[in-house]
Write a structure and sequence with these properties.
- The protein has about 55 residues and is mostly helical.
- The protein is built from two helices and no strands.
- It has one domain.
Length: about 55
């Protein structure tokens, strides 16, 4: 197998592991929300304006 193919395989495997970890974290947060332990985040208009400005700059 070529060196590039090995590197690509390594990167793909790392991304899969990262995605699995994120999926587990998301599922944990969903369960916590259903149990009432964690509330969904609420954003004020000021934070929305800041986020919009930050993404357009």
């Amino acid at each position: 197998m070529s060196e590039l193919a090995k590197q690509i395989e390594t990167v793909v495997e790392a991304q899969k592991q990262n995605n699995q970890a994120l999926s587990r974290q998301l599922e944990f947060l969903k369960q916590a929300q259903r149990a009432g332990v964690v509330k969904k985040p609420e954003y004020s208009l000021a934070s929305k304006v800041y986020l919009q400005h930050a993404t357009t700059v």
